[in-house]
Inverse folding.
């Protein structure tokens, strides 16, 4: 296995007490058809700031929504993963993108709108935003990225860093190893960046785009299609990639998805992606999936960002 050389990154060039103002240059919906889950691709022009060329794919930027909450306190900083490659959106170092889902909740018949996500979703080109960052120093592609194979697991907006990483690997680095993206969402209408990913799948024989739609039909045993069940249903494709000694796994999205993946990796005999904390029982199903983290954690070959 090649050594995993993670790049040195700069952290918090701009902090909460010292944010920087950047301009929105585009803001568009990234679902193909209309969906009640509205997800947007938003690009900022960071020209003239110290963020130019200093934000890597896999890192996040902070957004400070204007105004105060009902108690008169300034709104909290929210972190958003960067979805542009390290070279910048459309190869322009001064353009940084992110992927934002408009959060809308109902509680006791009242509608609640997520502060930062709705603020960002409403922005128009030319509007300015206060941002901080970058943050994150582990969920990165190695400097020697071409030496590895990748299996990326994403749910929902967890796709953000992978959009940038896939662009970086295939469009900039002439990547020749295997890369699979397993993307999970509730309905087909919630597929994000689907045209781009379908196109990459068609163009590059070593890029595999696997969709996992959870609420349209069930698996044969009655369970839902989740990203981890693709390790079973698409075993023919994924197991040989997992079996290679230079494969890395990246997991991004909903908290809880990682333990489902851990369990399936153990069942299929791929313990190298994990570090054992405590002896495992013979039958893994004796452990409730939620308790699996008492027994195992991500190893150096597994990168995760769950929230
Ligand atoms: P479901 O909600 O049908 O149970 P989004 O962020 O767009 O809501 O998508 C999240 C996706 O992740 C959904 O398809 C959701 O399925 C699925 N999901 C929910 N819980 C888990 C889990 N523990 N492991 C993997 N996927 C999950």
């Amino acid at each position: 296995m090649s050594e995993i050389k993670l790049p040195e990154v700069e952290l918090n060039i701009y902090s909460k007490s010292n944010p920087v103002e950047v301009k929105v240059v585009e803001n568009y919906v990234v679902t193909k058809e209309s969906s009640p889950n509205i997800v947007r691709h938003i690009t900022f022009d960071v020209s003239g700031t110290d963020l130019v060329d200093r934000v890597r794919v896999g890192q996040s930027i902070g957004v400070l929504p204007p105004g105060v909450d009902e108690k008169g306190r300034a709104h909290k900083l929210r972190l958003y993963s960067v979805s542009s490659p390290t070279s910048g959106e459309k190869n322009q170092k001064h353009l940084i993108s992110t992927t934002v889902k408009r959060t809308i909740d109902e509680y006791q018949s009242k509608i609640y709108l997520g502060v930062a996500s709705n603020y960002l979703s409403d922005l128009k080109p030319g509007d300015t935003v206060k941002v901080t960052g970058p943050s994150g120093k582990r969920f990165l592609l190695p400097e020697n990225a071409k030496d590895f194979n990748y299996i990326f697991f994403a749910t929902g907006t967890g796709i953000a860093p992978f959009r940038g990483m896939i662009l970086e690997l295939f469009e900039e680095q002439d990547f020749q190893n295997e890369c699979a993206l397993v993307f999970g969402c509730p309905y087909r209408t919630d597929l994000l960046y689907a045209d781009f990913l379908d196109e990459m799948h068609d163009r590059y024989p070593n890029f595999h785009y696997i969709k996992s739609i959870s609420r349209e039909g069930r698996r044969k045993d009655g369970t839902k299609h989740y990203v981890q069940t693709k390790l079973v249903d698409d075993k023919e494709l994924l197991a040989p990639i997992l079996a290679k000694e230079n494969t890395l796994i990246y997991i991004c999205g909903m908290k809880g998805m990682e333990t489902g993946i851990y369990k399936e990796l153990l069942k299929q005999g791929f313990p190298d992606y994990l570090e054992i904390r405590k002896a495992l029982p013979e039958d893994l199903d004796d452990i409730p999936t939620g308790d699996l983290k008492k027994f195992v954690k991500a190893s150096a070959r597994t990168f995760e960002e769950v929230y």
